[in-house]
Amino acid sequence: MSESTADADDLRRRVHEFLDTHDPGSTEPLEFLRARFDAGFAWVHFPSGLGGLDAPRALQSVVDDAFTAVGAPRNQAERNVIGLGMAAPTILRFGTDEQKSRLLRPLWTGEDIWCQLFSEPGAGSDLAALGTRAVRDGDHWIVTGQKVWTSIAHEARWAILVARTDPGVPKHRGMTYFVCDMTAPGVEVRPLRQITGEAEFNEVFLTDVRIPDTDRLGDVGQGWAVAQTTLMNERVAIGGGAAPRESGMIGMVTALWREHPELRTAGLHDTLLRLWVETEAARLTGMRLRQQLAAGQPGPEGSAVKLAYARLNQEASGLELELLGEDGLRYDDWTMRRPTGVDFTRRSPGYRYLRAKGNSIEGGTSEILRNIVAERVLGLPGEIRVDKDVAWKDLPK
Amino acid sequence: MTDLLYGDIEEELRRAVRSVLDDLAPWSQVLAGVEGDDPYDAKLWRTISADLGCAGLAVPEELGGAGASFREAAVVLEELGRAVAPVPFLGSAVVATAALLEAGETELLAQLAAGRRTAALAVPFSTPPGASFAPTVRAEDVAPAGERPVAGEPGGNATLTGVVRSVADGLAADVLLVPADGVLYAVDGADVRRTAVTSLDMTRPLCDLVLASAPAWPVATGHAARRALEAALTTGAALLASEQLGLAERCLETTVAYVKTRYQFGRPIGSFQGLKHRLADLWVSISQARAVARYAAACAAEGDPDTAVAVAVAQAHCSTVAVRAAEECVQLHGGIGFTWEHPAHLYLKRAKSTSIAFGTPDRHRAALAGLVDLPL
């Protein structure tokens, strides 16, 4: 028996011991989740005492499967993607012991939903240009500014926030990272309506928000380094899971193609087959990437997968509209709503076409990703940086 | 799940082949070679086929091969593509070998595996998988069934007459595998009139064949013959994707190295975003080419039921990527890339030729339409 199989068996046994004393059927869900966290079964690769067991990350699926099998209460991870995927690893790496023990448990159980206050109207791709100010006031900071593209801000209890604490130094050096209580006075959340008609995102206005210094993550001026940890985890999260052939956007088009012979033309046929091939190539690339990760050989192909999917989603949804012809002129609903997630399949082709436009902007624009590939993978010279040695306050804005 | 990575043995094989190619086939020598009359680099071929044992990779050990598979052969092709090496590996160790393996032939197979002889499939290099027997060669004087002499004995049991144009790796092949009248025949190279074609791909010269009552021996008949022809074309198309991958990768590397050192306007031209983004996009496409080429090679090696789809995807994608990589290599090198003295043209000629070999991307997309139920 291999060592990892032994570990997995041991872990399974420990989960069952836990379940013997915590009946998943009768225990109050929140109480159950808290107990699961305290027993180290939340994220096994985290340290003991913080929801983990210092175990290899690969063993998490063993634990998850064991809990799923008995229908145990769920922490609804899909509702707290930013909390679990981005805030938690950042808190673990840069938080104080007090912050870790205070923040991580309610984050994991889903009591506290988290959002991200990074982008600003004047700081998108150039995040380090952000201008939200944090001014020290005794053992507090007074924060004022405007953030944008904030998912689920209207449901969030906490935010991860980067603000400028020293405008007198070049942009990368004058930032500090905080966690921000979204219920604090001066935090105002407004829905940001997008081209689909709905509002997945928000604008967040911060007006003299008082943040205690105990909610600072990392040192003063270290905000950029802390934010890198967060953003690295974002790219991992977006990198993508296993998908069967013809899943996603191409599947919508192929289904339509098969059902409606009367819509077919030679030109659209050629376009469809080109897209099919490229989508399959991207799918196999994602599959290979996961095999690399499983074999402990992480590669830079994650950027390739995101770049490819952004374009393919846009082209496939555009093709779907053209294929529909007259029906492509119709849209399902422009009503302003605030959905909690994106579901391409439940809305109309027009929605898919419009929503896919965001794929090459969100989580790093395709242009920035190309810069990253060119510079970090191919080793080409970096962009000329006219702002490198200029104090943030002196930058043209 | 199909393994899309490279194993330790494959990486070892790659290192060995690359080291030989670095020594014996630097591009300056490949370029000099295309001006000569040799159909391929005999010394290089001997080293790769016999000394390294690459010719028998896909052949079982009991038949004198290395007992590996077409997966490993695909890694060799990646390296040969990187070097645009003038050797008949694809034609003999892949295409002809696949036909003989499928036909259950052992004698010639063992000779190919040992690198003692080479063979080529006598079809135009552009023939796609799924092609039927071409009517350009006819069999005559066919001995009645039951009276067939053993292959290789003098005299043959039929004679072949006809013409086959644009055959790859056929110029110096010891044996030609000729499909005619539903039978796959073996014909001694000496009995075929071969004319070198002035080929677009200077590093894989084609030839035209004329058979005039050439003595021939059947390798496979009936269904077995059709299956052997199909195995040859499918395996060739599947593994050509790996050659295209290696070629594209080398073009990207060469171009990236060049744009870092070429200064214009006081900057390395590789610092201009117009070039950086093109190269980044090319890298993305090559990452995908690696996944689809590995998948096609694995499917071909394992006889996976998804092989036909895998091959169509691999050829539709990798052909396109290889041509784009070579075209970008010429363009981003500017003037020097348009000269004879720079190797970029060898890659462009190879890339464009391989995009036609075993069927153009458009033909493979058309095949795919049938395979995945997306008819016009």
Automatic annotation (TrEMBL), chain A:
Cofactor(s) the record lists: FAD
Domain Acyl-CoA dehydrogenase/oxidase C-terminal: from-to ranges: 221-378
Domain Acyl-CoA dehydrogenase/oxidase N-terminal per the UniProt entry, residue ranges: 15-111
Matching InterPro entries: Acyl-CoA_Oxase/DH_mid-dom, Acyl-CoA_Oxase/DH_mid-dom_sf, AcylCo_DH-like_C, AcylCo_DH/oxidase_C, AcylCoA_DH/ox_N, AcylCoA_DH/ox_N_sf, AcylCoA_DH/oxidase_NM_dom_sf, Mycobact_Acyl-CoA_DH
Keywords: FAD, Flavoprotein, Oxidoreductase
Chain ranges of the Acyl-CoA oxidase/dehydrogenase middle domain: 115-209
Family: Belongs to the acyl-CoA dehydrogenase family.
This protein's name: Acyl-CoA dehydrogenase family protein
Organism the protein comes from: Actinomadura alba
From TrEMBL, chain B:
Acyl-CoA dehydrogenase/oxidase C-terminal domain boundaries: 230-369
Pfam family, one: Acyl-CoA_dh_1
SUPFAM superfamilies for the chain: Acyl-CoA dehydrogenase C-terminal domain-like (SSF47203), Acyl-CoA dehydrogenase NM domain-like (SSF56645)
Top-level taxon of the source organism: Bacteria
Record's keyword annotation contains Oxidoreductase: yes
Reported cofactor(s): FAD
Domain Acyl-CoA dehydrogenase/oxidase N-terminal residue range list: 10-108
Protein family: Belongs to the acyl-CoA dehydrogenase family.
Family annotation (Gene3D superfamilies): Acyl-CoA dehydrogenase/oxidase, N-terminal domain, Butyryl-CoA Dehydrogenase, subunit A, domain 3
Record's protein name: Acyl-CoA/acyl-ACP dehydrogenase
Assigned keywords, A-Z: FAD, Flavoprotein, Oxidoreductase
